[in-house]
Amino acid sequence: MFKLDSAVFDAALFLQQDWQQRPKVFRQAFPQFKDPMTADELAGVALEPGVDSRLISQQDGKWDLKHGPIEDYSDLADSHWSLLVQAVNEHFPPAQKLLEAFRFLPDWRIDDLMVSYSTIGGGVGPHLDQYDVFIIQGEGQRRWQIGERGEYTSVVPHPDLKQINGFKADIDVILEPGDMIYIPAGFPHSGDSLKPSMNYSVGFRAPTQAELLSALADYALEHDALTARYQDQGEWPDKSWHINDAAYTQMRQLMQNALNDEALLRRVCANLLSQNPRPPLMQWPQDPITESGLLRYLQQYAYLQRAVGLRMITTHLDGQLHGLVQAQAYELDSSAEQLFECLLNVNYEIETQALLPFLTTPLSRQLLVQLINEGFWFAVNED
Protein backbone atom coordinates (compact mmCIF):
# COMPACT_ATOMS: atom_id res chain seq x y z
CA MET A 1 0.00 0.00 0.00
CA PHE A 2 1.28 3.46 -0.91
CA LYS A 3 0.56 6.04 1.77
CA LEU A 4 1.53 9.68 1.93
CA ASP A 5 3.39 10.59 5.11
CA SER A 6 1.02 12.95 6.93
CA ALA A 7 3.97 14.61 8.69
CA VAL A 8 5.29 15.62 5.26
CA PHE A 9 2.05 16.10 3.33
CA ASP A 10 -1.00 17.54 5.09
CA ALA A 11 -3.78 17.15 2.50
CA ALA A 12 -6.12 19.74 4.03
CA LEU A 13 -3.35 22.32 4.31
CA PHE A 14 -2.15 21.55 0.80
CA LEU A 15 -5.61 22.06 -0.70
CA GLN A 16 -5.94 25.37 1.14
CA GLN A 17 -2.50 26.81 0.42
CA ASP A 18 -1.00 25.14 -2.66
CA TRP A 19 -3.51 23.36 -4.90
CA GLN A 20 -3.62 25.11 -8.28
CA GLN A 21 -1.66 28.00 -6.81
CA ARG A 22 2.04 27.15 -6.66
CA PRO A 23 4.48 24.28 -7.23
CA LYS A 24 5.87 22.53 -4.19
CA VAL A 25 8.40 19.83 -3.34
CA PHE A 26 7.62 17.21 -0.69
CA ARG A 27 10.71 15.37 0.50
CA GLN A 28 10.04 11.73 1.38
CA ALA A 29 6.31 12.08 0.88
CA PHE A 30 6.39 8.31 0.38
CA PRO A 31 8.98 7.04 2.87
CA GLN A 32 10.79 3.83 1.88
CA PHE A 33 9.10 4.00 -1.52
CA LYS A 34 9.19 0.81 -3.55
CA ASP A 35 8.49 0.97 -7.27
CA PRO A 36 5.23 -0.82 -8.13
CA MET A 37 6.84 -1.98 -11.39
CA THR A 38 10.20 -2.40 -13.08
CA ALA A 39 11.47 -0.80 -16.28
CA ASP A 40 11.08 -4.17 -18.02
CA GLU A 41 7.46 -4.43 -16.89
CA LEU A 42 6.83 -0.91 -18.18
CA ALA A 43 8.30 -1.92 -21.53
CA GLY A 44 5.96 -4.91 -21.51
CA VAL A 45 2.93 -2.65 -21.02
CA ALA A 46 4.17 -0.45 -23.89
CA LEU A 47 3.97 -3.51 -26.15
CA GLU A 48 0.25 -4.03 -25.56
CA PRO A 49 -2.18 -2.96 -28.30
CA GLY A 50 -4.28 0.07 -27.46
CA VAL A 51 -1.77 1.43 -24.93
CA ASP A 52 -0.67 5.03 -25.46
CA SER A 53 3.13 5.03 -25.27
CA ARG A 54 5.90 7.23 -26.61
CA LEU A 55 9.65 6.88 -26.94
CA ILE A 56 11.33 10.30 -26.88
CA SER A 57 15.02 10.68 -27.55
CA GLN A 58 17.48 13.48 -28.11
CA GLN A 59 20.97 13.30 -29.58
CA ASP A 60 23.14 16.28 -30.50
CA GLY A 61 20.18 18.64 -30.17
CA LYS A 62 17.97 16.61 -32.51
CA TRP A 63 14.72 15.28 -31.06
CA ASP A 64 12.86 12.15 -32.13
CA LEU A 65 9.54 10.65 -31.02
CA LYS A 66 8.06 7.26 -31.77
CA HIS A 67 4.58 6.09 -30.84
CA GLY A 68 3.94 2.62 -29.48
CA PRO A 69 3.69 -0.28 -29.47
CA ILE A 70 7.43 -0.04 -28.78
CA GLU A 71 9.14 -3.29 -29.72
CA ASP A 72 12.77 -2.44 -30.41
CA TYR A 73 15.23 -0.33 -28.41
CA SER A 74 18.37 -1.55 -30.17
CA ASP A 75 18.96 1.61 -32.21
CA LEU A 76 18.98 3.86 -29.12
CA ALA A 77 22.06 5.27 -27.45
CA ASP A 78 22.84 4.51 -23.82
CA SER A 79 21.52 7.88 -22.69
CA HIS A 80 19.13 10.77 -23.47
CA TRP A 81 15.91 8.84 -24.06
CA SER A 82 12.66 8.24 -22.18
CA LEU A 83 9.81 5.76 -22.48
CA LEU A 84 6.48 7.26 -21.39
CA VAL A 85 3.34 5.15 -20.99
CA GLN A 86 -0.11 6.61 -20.26
CA ALA A 87 -2.79 5.03 -18.06
CA VAL A 88 -0.49 2.36 -16.67
CA ASN A 89 -2.92 1.96 -13.76
CA GLU A 90 -5.44 0.54 -16.22
CA HIS A 91 -3.08 -2.11 -17.58
CA PHE A 92 -0.90 -3.02 -14.60
CA PRO A 93 -3.07 -3.50 -11.47
CA PRO A 94 -0.28 -3.06 -8.87
CA ALA A 95 0.25 0.49 -10.16
CA GLN A 96 -3.40 1.36 -9.51
CA LYS A 97 -2.71 1.22 -5.79
CA LEU A 98 -0.52 4.32 -6.05
CA LEU A 99 -3.57 6.39 -6.99
CA GLU A 100 -5.25 5.50 -3.69
CA ALA A 101 -2.97 8.02 -1.97
CA PHE A 102 -4.57 10.86 -3.93
CA ARG A 103 -8.21 10.26 -3.03
CA PHE A 104 -8.24 13.42 -0.91
CA LEU A 105 -9.33 14.79 -4.29
CA PRO A 106 -12.54 13.57 -6.00
CA ASP A 107 -12.16 10.34 -7.96
CA TRP A 108 -13.56 11.94 -11.11
CA ARG A 109 -10.76 14.51 -11.07
CA ILE A 110 -8.05 11.86 -11.34
CA ASP A 111 -7.28 11.05 -14.97
CA ASP A 112 -4.52 8.47 -14.99
CA LEU A 113 -1.08 7.38 -13.88
CA MET A 114 1.60 8.01 -16.47
CA VAL A 115 4.84 6.11 -15.85
CA SER A 116 8.16 6.89 -17.44
CA TYR A 117 11.57 5.30 -17.54
CA SER A 118 14.46 7.59 -18.45
CA THR A 119 18.11 6.94 -19.06
CA ILE A 120 20.73 9.48 -17.98
CA GLY A 121 19.89 12.79 -19.66
CA GLY A 122 16.43 11.56 -20.62
CA GLY A 123 13.53 14.01 -20.63
CA VAL A 124 10.99 15.68 -22.88
CA GLY A 125 12.41 19.20 -22.74
CA PRO A 126 10.94 22.37 -21.23
CA HIS A 127 7.18 22.45 -21.62
CA LEU A 128 3.79 23.45 -20.20
CA ASP A 129 0.98 21.13 -19.10
CA GLN A 130 -2.67 22.17 -19.08
CA TYR A 131 -3.41 19.97 -16.08
CA ASP A 132 -2.20 19.64 -12.50
CA VAL A 133 0.26 16.85 -11.84
CA PHE A 134 2.00 15.12 -8.94
CA ILE A 135 5.29 13.42 -9.89
CA ILE A 136 6.68 10.74 -7.59
CA GLN A 137 10.31 9.79 -7.91
CA GLY A 138 10.95 6.08 -7.98
CA GLU A 139 14.26 4.43 -8.69
CA GLY A 140 17.07 6.82 -9.68
CA GLN A 141 17.48 10.60 -9.53
CA ARG A 142 15.91 13.36 -11.55
CA ARG A 143 16.52 17.11 -11.66
CA TRP A 144 13.44 19.30 -11.93
CA GLN A 145 13.38 22.97 -12.85
CA ILE A 146 10.16 24.99 -12.59
CA GLY A 147 9.46 28.61 -13.48
CA GLU A 148 6.60 31.05 -13.07
CA ARG A 149 3.41 31.20 -15.12
CA GLY A 150 3.72 33.56 -18.04
CA GLU A 151 3.78 33.93 -21.80
CA TYR A 152 6.27 31.61 -23.47
CA THR A 153 7.11 31.04 -27.10
CA SER A 154 6.31 27.56 -28.37
CA VAL A 155 8.95 25.43 -30.05
CA VAL A 156 8.20 22.29 -32.09
CA PRO A 157 11.44 20.28 -32.44
CA HIS A 158 9.40 17.33 -33.73
CA PRO A 159 5.87 17.32 -35.22
CA ASP A 160 4.54 15.42 -32.17
CA LEU A 161 6.56 17.23 -29.49
CA LYS A 162 5.71 20.69 -28.20
CA GLN A 163 8.20 22.56 -26.05
CA ILE A 164 8.76 26.17 -24.99
CA ASN A 165 11.73 28.49 -25.08
CA GLY A 166 13.88 28.68 -21.97
CA PHE A 167 12.49 29.97 -18.70
CA LYS A 168 14.00 31.18 -15.45
CA ALA A 169 13.85 28.40 -12.86
CA ASP A 170 12.55 29.46 -9.45
CA ILE A 171 12.67 25.85 -8.25
CA ASP A 172 15.72 23.73 -9.07
CA VAL A 173 15.80 20.44 -7.18
CA ILE A 174 16.99 16.86 -7.41
CA LEU A 175 14.43 14.25 -6.43
CA GLU A 176 15.37 11.01 -4.69
CA PRO A 177 13.19 7.87 -4.39
CA GLY A 178 10.07 8.69 -2.36
CA ASP A 179 10.22 12.45 -3.05
CA MET A 180 7.27 14.10 -4.77
CA ILE A 181 6.77 17.35 -6.63
CA TYR A 182 3.49 19.08 -7.38
CA ILE A 183 3.21 21.24 -10.52
CA PRO A 184 -0.03 23.18 -11.16
CA ALA A 185 -1.29 23.69 -14.70
CA GLY A 186 0.51 26.37 -16.67
CA PHE A 187 3.84 26.39 -14.81
CA PRO A 188 6.82 25.79 -17.16
CA HIS A 189 8.99 22.89 -16.13
CA SER A 190 11.67 20.52 -17.30
CA GLY A 191 12.94 17.23 -15.87
CA ASP A 192 16.22 15.51 -16.71
CA SER A 193 17.42 12.21 -15.30
CA LEU A 194 20.75 12.16 -13.51
CA LYS A 195 20.55 8.38 -13.11
CA PRO A 196 18.30 5.83 -14.84
CA SER A 197 14.93 6.73 -13.33
CA MET A 198 11.35 5.63 -12.86
CA ASN A 199 8.81 8.41 -12.46
CA TYR A 200 5.09 8.22 -11.67
CA SER A 201 2.91 11.13 -12.77
CA VAL A 202 -0.63 11.48 -11.43
CA GLY A 203 -2.55 13.66 -13.88
CA PHE A 204 -5.91 15.29 -13.30
CA ARG A 205 -8.94 15.65 -15.51
CA ALA A 206 -10.23 19.19 -16.08
CA PRO A 207 -12.94 19.44 -18.78
CA THR A 208 -12.74 22.46 -21.05
CA GLN A 209 -15.72 24.65 -21.91
CA ALA A 210 -15.70 23.05 -25.36
CA GLU A 211 -15.86 19.52 -23.89
CA LEU A 212 -18.74 20.44 -21.59
CA LEU A 213 -20.71 22.18 -24.34
CA SER A 214 -20.01 19.32 -26.74
CA ALA A 215 -21.30 16.83 -24.15
CA LEU A 216 -24.44 18.93 -23.73
CA ALA A 217 -25.02 19.05 -27.49
CA ASP A 218 -24.41 15.32 -27.91
CA TYR A 219 -26.85 14.49 -25.11
CA ALA A 220 -29.49 16.85 -26.48
CA LEU A 221 -29.27 15.37 -29.97
CA GLU A 222 -29.39 11.80 -28.68
CA HIS A 223 -32.36 12.41 -26.35
CA ASP A 224 -34.25 14.95 -28.44
CA ALA A 225 -33.78 17.63 -25.76
CA LEU A 226 -33.29 21.42 -26.07
CA THR A 227 -35.78 21.68 -28.92
CA ALA A 228 -36.88 25.29 -28.32
CA ARG A 229 -36.32 27.28 -31.52
CA TYR A 230 -35.40 30.84 -32.32
CA GLN A 231 -38.30 33.28 -32.53
CA ASP A 232 -38.18 36.83 -33.91
CA GLN A 233 -38.73 39.60 -31.39
CA GLY A 234 -40.07 42.23 -33.83
CA GLU A 235 -36.82 44.18 -34.14
CA TRP A 236 -35.96 43.99 -37.84
CA PRO A 237 -32.64 44.99 -39.44
CA ASP A 238 -32.53 47.86 -41.91
CA LYS A 239 -30.88 45.57 -44.46
CA SER A 240 -32.06 42.04 -45.15
CA TRP A 241 -28.53 40.66 -45.23
CA HIS A 242 -27.59 42.02 -41.81
CA ILE A 243 -27.78 40.14 -38.46
CA ASN A 244 -28.74 42.70 -35.86
CA ASP A 245 -28.10 42.81 -32.10
CA ALA A 246 -31.64 41.67 -31.28
CA ALA A 247 -31.06 38.37 -33.11
CA TYR A 248 -27.83 37.75 -31.17
CA THR A 249 -29.62 38.56 -27.91
CA GLN A 250 -32.34 36.03 -28.66
CA MET A 251 -29.86 33.30 -29.60
CA ARG A 252 -27.80 33.98 -26.49
CA GLN A 253 -30.96 33.65 -24.41
CA LEU A 254 -31.73 30.29 -26.01
CA MET A 255 -28.29 29.00 -25.04
CA GLN A 256 -28.52 30.42 -21.52
CA ASN A 257 -31.89 28.75 -21.05
CA ALA A 258 -30.27 25.44 -21.96
CA LEU A 259 -27.53 25.96 -19.37
CA ASN A 260 -30.08 26.98 -16.74
CA ASP A 261 -31.81 23.58 -16.91
CA GLU A 262 -30.34 22.19 -13.68
CA ALA A 263 -31.59 18.62 -14.10
CA LEU A 264 -30.26 18.43 -17.65
CA LEU A 265 -26.91 19.95 -16.69
CA ARG A 266 -26.43 17.46 -13.85
CA ARG A 267 -27.23 14.54 -16.14
CA VAL A 268 -24.87 15.71 -18.88
CA CYS A 269 -21.96 16.40 -16.51
CA ALA A 270 -22.47 13.14 -14.60
CA ASN A 271 -22.49 11.19 -17.87
CA LEU A 272 -19.32 12.89 -19.06
CA LEU A 273 -17.40 12.47 -15.81
CA SER A 274 -18.41 8.82 -15.35
CA GLN A 275 -16.85 7.91 -18.70
CA ASN A 276 -13.23 7.06 -19.25
CA PRO A 277 -11.84 8.81 -22.36
CA ARG A 278 -10.10 5.49 -22.97
CA PRO A 279 -12.96 2.95 -23.36
CA PRO A 280 -12.91 0.19 -20.71
CA LEU A 281 -12.05 -3.36 -21.74
CA MET A 282 -15.43 -4.90 -20.95
CA GLN A 283 -16.22 -8.62 -20.88
CA TRP A 284 -19.78 -9.83 -21.23
CA PRO A 285 -21.21 -13.09 -19.82
CA GLN A 286 -21.84 -15.84 -22.32
CA ASP A 287 -25.56 -15.58 -21.56
CA PRO A 288 -27.27 -12.68 -19.77
CA ILE A 289 -28.03 -13.43 -16.14
CA THR A 290 -31.31 -12.68 -14.38
CA GLU A 291 -32.11 -11.47 -10.89
CA SER A 292 -33.60 -14.87 -10.02
CA GLY A 293 -30.44 -16.62 -11.21
CA LEU A 294 -27.94 -14.20 -9.65
CA LEU A 295 -27.10 -16.15 -6.50
CA ARG A 296 -26.72 -19.39 -8.44
CA TYR A 297 -24.44 -17.56 -10.89
CA LEU A 298 -22.24 -16.14 -8.11
CA GLN A 299 -21.88 -19.59 -6.51
CA GLN A 300 -20.19 -20.85 -9.68
CA TYR A 301 -17.33 -18.35 -9.49
CA ALA A 302 -14.73 -17.32 -6.94
CA TYR A 303 -14.24 -13.69 -7.98
CA LEU A 304 -15.70 -10.74 -9.79
CA GLN A 305 -13.12 -8.71 -11.68
CA ARG A 306 -13.42 -5.06 -12.60
CA ALA A 307 -13.16 -4.17 -16.29
CA VAL A 308 -9.89 -2.41 -17.06
CA GLY A 309 -10.38 1.36 -17.10
CA LEU A 310 -13.81 1.37 -15.46
CA ARG A 311 -15.00 4.64 -13.89
CA MET A 312 -17.62 4.63 -11.11
CA ILE A 313 -19.10 7.72 -9.42
CA THR A 314 -22.20 8.63 -7.40
CA THR A 315 -24.33 11.77 -7.55
CA HIS A 316 -27.89 12.99 -7.07
CA LEU A 317 -30.05 13.15 -10.19
CA ASP A 318 -33.65 14.34 -9.93
CA GLY A 319 -33.33 14.28 -6.15
CA GLN A 320 -32.37 10.58 -6.05
CA LEU A 321 -28.93 9.08 -5.41
CA HIS A 322 -27.57 7.30 -8.49
CA GLY A 323 -24.44 5.35 -9.29
CA LEU A 324 -22.99 6.00 -12.73
CA VAL A 325 -20.71 3.76 -14.78
CA GLN A 326 -19.77 4.81 -18.30
CA ALA A 327 -22.80 7.14 -18.44
CA GLN A 328 -25.13 4.34 -17.31
CA ALA A 329 -27.14 5.55 -14.30
CA TYR A 330 -28.46 3.19 -11.61
CA GLU A 331 -30.86 4.26 -8.87
CA LEU A 332 -29.51 3.39 -5.42
CA ASP A 333 -31.27 2.54 -2.18
CA SER A 334 -29.18 2.01 0.97
CA SER A 335 -28.22 -1.60 0.09
CA ALA A 336 -27.45 -0.78 -3.54
CA GLU A 337 -25.41 2.21 -2.37
CA GLN A 338 -23.33 -0.01 -0.08
CA LEU A 339 -22.82 -2.50 -2.91
CA PHE A 340 -21.86 0.24 -5.36
CA GLU A 341 -19.39 1.82 -2.92
CA CYS A 342 -17.90 -1.58 -2.17
CA LEU A 343 -17.30 -2.20 -5.88
CA LEU A 344 -15.92 1.25 -6.68
CA ASN A 345 -13.32 0.82 -3.94
CA VAL A 346 -12.05 -2.43 -5.48
CA ASN A 347 -8.99 -1.98 -7.66
CA TYR A 348 -9.03 -5.34 -9.38
CA GLU A 349 -11.18 -8.18 -8.02
CA ILE A 350 -13.41 -9.16 -5.12
CA GLU A 351 -14.58 -12.53 -3.83
CA THR A 352 -18.13 -13.21 -4.95
CA GLN A 353 -19.07 -14.36 -1.44
CA ALA A 354 -18.15 -10.92 -0.08
CA LEU A 355 -20.99 -9.41 -2.13
CA LEU A 356 -23.80 -11.53 -0.70
CA PRO A 357 -24.48 -9.33 2.39
CA PHE A 358 -25.28 -6.39 0.09
CA LEU A 359 -27.88 -8.23 -2.01
CA THR A 360 -30.78 -7.64 0.34
CA THR A 361 -33.10 -5.52 -1.84
CA PRO A 362 -34.38 -5.74 -5.42
CA LEU A 363 -32.41 -2.59 -6.36
CA SER A 364 -29.11 -4.02 -5.11
CA ARG A 365 -29.66 -7.32 -6.94
CA GLN A 366 -30.75 -5.53 -10.11
CA LEU A 367 -27.65 -3.33 -9.88
CA LEU A 368 -25.26 -6.28 -9.78
CA VAL A 369 -27.13 -8.08 -12.57
CA GLN A 370 -26.88 -5.00 -14.79
CA LEU A 371 -23.20 -4.40 -14.02
CA ILE A 372 -22.40 -8.00 -15.01
CA ASN A 373 -24.62 -8.02 -18.10
CA GLU A 374 -23.10 -4.72 -19.28
CA GLY A 375 -19.61 -6.25 -19.04
CA PHE A 376 -18.47 -3.78 -16.37
CA TRP A 377 -17.77 -6.60 -13.92
CA PHE A 378 -17.17 -10.20 -14.92
CA ALA A 379 -16.91 -13.47 -13.04
CA VAL A 380 -13.74 -15.61 -12.97
CA ASN A 381 -12.38 -18.62 -11.14
CA GLU A 382 -8.81 -19.06 -9.95
CA ASP A 383 -6.40 -20.40 -12.55
TrEMBL record:
Its cofactor is Fe(2+). It holds the Pfam family JmjC_2. Gene3D superfamilies: 50S ribosomal protein L16 arginine hydroxylase, Chain A, Domain 2, Cupin. One of its GO terms (molecular function) is 2-oxoglutarate-dependent dioxygenase activity. Coiled coil: none annotated. SUPFAM superfamilies: Clavaminate synthase-like (SSF51197). Residues 94-221 form the JmjC domain. Keywords: Iron, Metal-binding. PANTHER family: MINA53 MYC INDUCED NUCLEAR ANTIGEN (PTHR13096), RIBOSOMAL OXYGENASE 1 (PTHR13096:SF8). This is JmjC domain-containing protein. It comes from Aliidiomarina minuta.
